């Protein structure tokens, strides 16, 4: 009896300690585990973008009764002010629209090669590729499309006046906005680049000194340019003073764009790529983006499997994803380019029949190589790639309104801050999009992507993109609106979010935040985020014959998705911006 009493106390104490530990662990798990975060909810409308200022601008337009296109255009102009690394008026992009009345359409406002462009323009006299010419400086700039594209969308599918949707961007540029830590740091990071161009240095520093978090960042010159666009529409940008300033800058630094290029620039409205995945309708971007075709091809291949809830993250699941990615990116390399210039076999590539042949090929290869499941990329087609950059400096935003219209927009300058050349006196950055062409067969671009004749440089041709602004319909009504930055990783990021929702029933926040992998056929390596491999999964994949991109894997981010999910049954709109980035889902 004597001894029992202390041991009872001990048991009670241990029990208490255990409960306390579980409680504390639970708390810290909840606070640091982004998987526990919930989507933002809305009743009427939602804008999800990489900048809280821009998301708010879009929602304010929705509150005024504007539709999703009005809000998207307002958000687009605002991003040019508040997300200067990728939001733009000197770049280009793509818009996918679903109208409540049922119409699906897309607007291609991708940059174009100038009239003076030619196939070997980035090769030296011996035929050697000079990446600096296609990736930096004015030689890398394509003819900008954003202003024409946004105004086209507004005129055709919006309900408000340009002056009203552009005004918020003008106000923010004029009055300034408070810099967050991330943006201030990115200005500082690119300081050596900005130093090359006095106008860039003037804009992105305080007389040479780096901006700090909390500083108010004003862009009065950009405000004036936006004022001109407000007054004159596209002519305010493509003609007159702004055009002259742009051309002066191009001439001073030895670029290719002329007034004739600006006069000839037109956005193109195109039929979307339409796919079907397990009964959901996929509406995505056709060429000049590869995004829609690649996404539908991937989904068609994967539809041949049926995934169980606990398959997610297993080696067998990753193996299936990776093999589908290899074949799809090999096709992208061979067949895709601007189909105004090159006959892209779209119908075949997005057909279920073609996907079935790829599915069968990958299964046959498995039987041939006993014990190995990975098909070496060189068995799919040869090519060489040594390394490639990862970055997230495109931007995507998704919009949904109370009328049932959905808009999905991806836009970019290509690299972070594009060519880093701020047009003197006009306050906007020039893109470096020409690098998305295939400058020479077998030479990878900045994202390690190869290309062929389909994506060779020609005057007025659009360089092939990976941007994948997408709308998924359920029973013909918007269900998902999503897209991402990330170069080649855009396609695989959008794919995985769709799978997470449709096959694994994740809520939209969890689906967006879940770790991802990427494979682009060449180089033949799995790119991965550190949290994706549990237990023995990586070893199992190694045994199957896979290799991995391990350098810097700890800090790697694949894509940065902005997504909306519409729960039509419960009449709730759910929004999520990726934990990987700074954006917000704004709602009302
Ligand atoms: O259009 C494209 O595919 C590329 N210019 C996108 C660039 C991008 O996503 C930058 N971020 N990684």
Give the gist of this structure.
The chain has 588 residues and is α+β, with helices and mostly antiparallel strands.
List keywords for this structure.
alpha+beta, binds 6-diazenyl-5-OXO-L-norleucine, Glutamine Phosphoribosylpyrophosphate, subunit 1, domain 1, 39% helix, 588 residues, single chain, seven-stranded antiparallel beta sheet, globular
Outline the structure in words.
There is one protein chain. The chain is of the alpha+beta class. The chain has a domain at 272-390 and 468-587: Gamma-glutamyltranspeptidase, small (S) subunit (Glutamine Phosphoribosylpyrophosphate, subunit 1, domain 1, 4-Layer Sandwich), CATH 3.60.20.40. It has 21 helices and 20 strands. The strands form 5 sheets. A 7-stranded antiparallel sheet has the order 1-19-18-15-14-11-10. A 7-stranded antiparallel sheet has the order 9-4-3-13-12-2-20. Strands 5-8 form a two-stranded antiparallel sheet. A hairpin with a 2-residue loop joins β6 and β7 (209-210). The site of 6-diazenyl-5-OXO-L-norleucine (DON) has 15 residues, from loops. 6-diazenyl-5-OXO-L-norleucine is lined by residues 391-394, 412, 414, 433, 436, 465-467, 485-487, 490.
